[in-house]
Design a protein that fits this description.
Mean pLDDT: 84
Number of helices: 11
CATH architecture of the largest domain: 3-Layer(aba) Sandwich
CATH topology of the largest domain: Protein Transport Mog1p, Chain A
Strand order of the largest sheet: 1-2-3-4-5-6-9
Largest sheet: 7 strands, mixed
Number of domains: 2
Order of helices and strands: HHEEEEEEHEEHEHEHEHEHHHEHEE
Shape: elongated
Radius of gyration: 22 Å
Oligomer: single chain
Strand content: 15-25%
């Protein structure tokens, strides 16, 4: 090593190094190329040489282009030095924020940084929220937040008619189209983001702040989703439906009827993920008193997700 190399910072001198690591993510460079490792998934991070465009390439060679984003080499060097970075939208990124954004964006094709930052909800960490970029014009009275189109959140008249007969349930449902931009847990997270942007927005502003990138999901069986209420373990799906904290209590027959409308082809093939609930204000009251729950359920026979949320207080 010559004198000039010895005076270089370690990150500049080494071809392979870890910039950030936690129990979920590792950001590193190998042979001078930047990578994000998340579980068994490995994403190669590169950039366009003439514009701020982040390329995320998975192990199958599928590439997502995130425009107006970051040079990954510069981002990882900042994280190696324990510094934050800022996106063009004004959002401040920690290393973990960057990992969550990349994991969420992977597989989405050709998008803008605004699309990738949807995983953070209302961007509560932005340094200049009053200078947020102009959104697309919406028709007066629209109840859909920017980016949520009819092709993503599905209106099912049959299911809606059945649910309307149970006005006292505390459960929120949202049916989301499978966009085929990810698989496994990542696909379920995409569905959760779509549902939050529908349910947590009143047409003018965000009602409950959220950051779906912090949600941790685990796959469970259908027996766990539809299990009998267990008072010792707190609120579960059937218990939340049949025994709401206010209003009428419902029967197992009512529960079966609603789920038959949501899953008309049966429940044998369903893929279910249960999620933690420490990532949104929506769940705060329920954690203090009655209880909370969050599930995403993929029905391969209809190629759609049903997102199931609940939180209530006295």
């Amino acid at each position: 090593m010559n004198d000039q190399q010895s005076n270089m910072p370690p990150w500049k001198r080494l071809d392979s190094a870890v910039a950030y690591s936690d129990d979920r993510y590792t950001l590193c460079k190998e042979d001078g190329v930047s990578y994000l490792l998340s579980g068994r998934k490995r994403y190669r991070l590169t950039c366009h040489p003439y514009e701020p465009c982040l390329y995320i390439t998975d192990e199958n060679g599928d590439r997502t282009a995130v425009h107006n984003a970051f040079d990954p080499a510069d981002a990882l060097e900042s994280f190696y030095k324990r510094r934050q970075i800022r996106s063009i939208t004004g959002r401040e990124y920690s290393a973990q924020d960057f990992c969550r954004m990349v994991e969420y964006a992977a597989g989405m094709g050709n998008i803008n940084i605004d699309d990738a930052e949807r995983v953070f909800g209302d961007r509560i960490n932005k340094c200049n929220p009053e200078k947020e970029p102009q959104k697309e014009n919406k028709p007066s009275g629209s109840d859909k937040p920017p980016g949520v189109g009819a092709g993503r959140v599905i209106e099912d008249p049959c299911a809606a008619d059945v649910l309307a007969q149970y006005p006292d349930i505390v459960i929120d449902y949202c049916i989301v189209k499978n966009e085929h931009i990810a698989d496994g847990c990542s696909a379920h997270r995409h569905a959760l983001v779509r549902a939050c942007r529908k349910l947590f927005y009143d047409g003018r502003e965000v009602i409950w702040r959220y950051d779906c990138g912090k949600a941790e999901g685990k796959q469970i069986g259908t027996a766990g989703l539809f299990a009998a209420p267990d008072r010792k373990r707190g609120v579960n799906y059937r218990g939340a439906f049949c025994y709401p904290p206010h209003g009428a209590w419902y029967t197992d027959e009512d529960f079966t009827r609603v789920n038959a409308a949501l899953f008309p082809n049966g429940t044998a093939a369903l893929e279910v993920y249960e999620w933690t609930t420490d990532w949104s204000e929506y769940f705060e009251d329920g954690r203090e008193w009655w209880g909370v729950l969050c599930y995403t359920v993929y029905d391969p026979t209809l190629d759609r997700f049903v997102v199931i949320l609940a939180s209530a207080t006295d």
